[in-house]
Fold these 2 entries.
Entry 1:
Amino acid sequence: MPLVTTTEMFKKAYEGGYAIGAFNVNNMEIVQGITAACKELNAPVILQVSSGARKYAHHGYLVKLVEAAVEETGLPIALHLDHGPDFETCKSCIDGGFTSVMIDGSAHPYEENVALTKKVVEYAHAHGVVVEGELGQLAGVEDEVNVSAEDAHYTDPEQVYDFVTRTGVDSLAIAIGTSHGAYKFKPGQKPQLRFDILEEVSKKLPGFPIVLHGASSVMPEYVKMINDFGGEMPDAIGIPEDMLRKAASMAVCKINVDSDIRLAMTASIRKHFAENPSHFDPRQYLTPARDAIKAVVEHKINSVLGCADKA
Ligand code: G3H
Ligand code: 13P
Ligand code: ZN
C-alpha cells in the first residue's frame, strides 16, 4: 500500500467516535517506535514532520524512513507537514511526496489566513494532497515561535463555516485550551478544555474533521524518570487523558502528540546512562528509547485515541 491521505481515515474516525494519532517524527528510531506500536495494534497513523524536523533530518531522509515504515507495516500511513509556515514550504512537501500538509496561518489577520490557506488548498488539491488549516491560536512553543498564554486565543465558532467554505480545507485545527510543549498549565492551575467551543464548531460544520494540537498529556511517569536520573524539569501539567478521549468521541479526528514522545525518549536515555555509565554504543541506549516510544504510542492508541484495529 502506498502512503495515503487522511480522507478515509477521518471519515471512519468521525463516524466511529475515535481519533487518529498524529505523531511528530525526527529520526529513524522515532519512526520505528511509533509504527511498531501501530502495527501491533493494527492502527492507522499520521506521521508528521515540522519545519524544524526537515531542517534537522532533511526532507528526503524522512520521506524514505516513512516509506520504509509503510512497506514494513502495510498500515495506512499519512505523511503530513506539521505547521507549514508559508506556501513555499507546503509546495515543497507536496512536490516531495507528502500526502497531507498543514498551512498554519493562525497568526495572520483573518483575511490573510483565508487567502494563504486557499492558495495552498488550490495547489494541494491539484496534486491529490489534503490540507489542514488553523483558526485560533494555541499558547506554547512550536519551532522558534513562542506564543504566550496572554497572546493565545480560542477559536471563534462564528468564523469556522466561512473559513472552511472559502478556503476548501479538508480539516481544521482549533484552539480550545490545549497548548504546545511540556508546560501547558501553571502549577496549581486546573486543566480545562472548552468543550462548549468544540460543540459549537461541530454544529456549524457537521461531519467535518477537527484537529487538536498540543495534546500531550505530559505523562508524569516520564517527567519523574527524567528527574530521578539527573534531570531538572519543573512541575509539568498536560492535558488529562479523559478530556482527550472525550474530544476523540466528538468531532476531533486527529490528535497531535510530540512532547510525550520526547519525554519518553529522553527519560529512557537518562535512565540508561545512569545505570550503564560506561556504555557508548548508540544502539545500546537507542534500543530502550525506541521501546519507550512504542510503549507511549500503544498507551495513546488504547487509552486516548481508540483507534486500535481500525487500520
Ligand atoms: O507543534 C510543534 C511540534 O511539537 C514540533 O516541534 O517544531 O520543535 O519540531 P518542532
Ligand atoms: P504537544 O507539544 O502537546 O505534544 O503537541 C504537539 C503538536 O501539536 C504538534 O503539532
Ligand atoms: Zn501543533
Note: Residues 202 and 251 are 6 Å apart (CA to CA).
Entry 2:
Amino acid sequence: MSDKFRIIGGGRLLGEVHVGGAKNSVLKLMAATLLAEGTFTISNVPDIADVEIMSDLLTRMGCTVTHTGSAVSITVPAAPLHRADYDLVRKMRASINVLGPLVARVGEAEVALPGGDAIGPRPLDLHIRGLEALGATAKIEHGFVVAKAPNGLTGARIDLDFPSVGATENVMTAAVLAKGTTVIDNAAREPDVVDVGEFLNAMGAKISGLGTSTITIEGVEKLHPADHATLPDRIIAGTWAFAAAITQGDITVRGANPDHLEIPFEKLTSAGAIITTAEDGFRVRMESRAHAVDVATLPYPGFPTDLQPMIIAMNATADGNSIVTENVFEGRFMFVNELGRLGADIHVEGHHASIKGVTQLSGAPVVATDIRAGVGLVLAGLVADGETIVEDAFHIDRGFPGFAEALCALGANVERI
Ligand code: EPZ
C-alpha cells in the first residue's frame, strides 16, 4: 500500500459514511479468546493492519485464525504457546493485551515490550503491578515482559493510579480465572473496556461494574468460547463529526453509537455544529465557520485523547482563540508542529496548546506521526489552499480502514500516491 495521501483542499464533505468495529476493542477481544479452548467468531471486525498483526500473533501461539468478510473465526488450542515475538509485538501496542489471558490460562507469558504509536512513553507499570497483586511474578528481561503464575492466580483488591485502559483490560482478563474475587478500583470506563468485559461474561466470566470506576470479578474455574460483535468505533465516528465541522459539510454517520460521544458532541455544538440523531447513527452539519472551543482531554467519559488532533485541526481554522489541554499522552502534541507547516498559529506550553484561529491554511508536505495525527493532518489538508502531501500514511491504515476512499465518496479530492 503506498504510504502518502495527496489532498487538494477545498469543498465541503457531503454524504453518508458507515463506521465499522472499534480497533481498540477488537484487538483485545481477539487476545481474550486465549482464555478458553475452542472456536470463537468475532464479527464487525474492521479491515485494518492491526487486526492482521493480532491474527499473526495468535497463529504463532498455535491458534487457527480465518477471516470471512468482516468476521474472524479463532480456534484456540488446549495449551497455547506463551511467547509473543518481538517482530510482531513491536508494531502494535495492543499486543500487550495477550499478557493477562496467557498468565491466567497457561500460567506464564513472555511478551515483547510493545511498540506502536509514538505519542509518548508507554509504561507498563500498572499492568505489571496488577498481575503481581493477583500473585504472578512479572519482570522485564531482555526486552520481554516475563510473567509467571505456576500455582494460578488469586483474587485481590487492585487500585490503579491512573484509569489505564490497557491495564484494566489485562487485570480483568487475568482475574476471570483467579481463585476468589478481584476488585479493580479507579478502573477505566471506556466503552471498549465494557465491550471486552461483556465478551468475557458471554464466555462464562462473572464481572460486574463494567463502565464504572469499580469493576468486580468473581473468578471461575473455566471459560468457554462465545461469539461477539465488536462495538462501533467511537473514535472513527467522532472523526467524521469533526470532518463535517472543519469542512462546513453535512455528514450522516451510520453504524455508530452517539451515546459514546457525549462530550465531543457538546464541544462540536458549542463550535456551531448542528447534530441530530439518525437511524443507526447521527448527522452533523456545519453551516458557517466554526467558533473556537477550549477542551481538556480526559479518560472516558471525558473528551478522548484520540480526538485531540481533530479538535485542534478544527480550532486551527475556527473563529477565535482556544486552549487545548492534553492530560493523557504528553507526546501527542508532535502533531502540532506538522500542523504549523500548513500555517496554523499554535503555541505549545507543556500540556497546553494555545491556538489562534486563522481564516485559511495553505497546503504543504507534512508527516503523520501516529494514526490520529495522520488523520488530523488529512482533515486540515481538506481545508488548506492547494496541495497537501501527508507522508507515512501507513499509520492511518493501522486504525482507519478505507479513509481515502470514504473521503472521495464525500466529495474530497484525496488520493494515495
Ligand atoms: C488505549 O491505549 C488506546 N489503545 C489508545 O488509543 C487510547 O488513546 C488510550 O487507551 C486512552 O484512551 C488501544 O486500546 C490499543 P492507557 P493504552 O493505558 O491502553 C499511562 C489509538 O490511537 N500508563 O489508558 O495504552 C500512559 O502513559 C490509541 O487508537 C501508565 O502510566 O492507554 C498514559 O499516559 C492511541 N502506566 C495513560 O496512562 C501503565 O502501566 C493512558 O494510558 C499504563 C498506562
Note: Residues 100 and 174 are 4 Å apart (CA to CA).
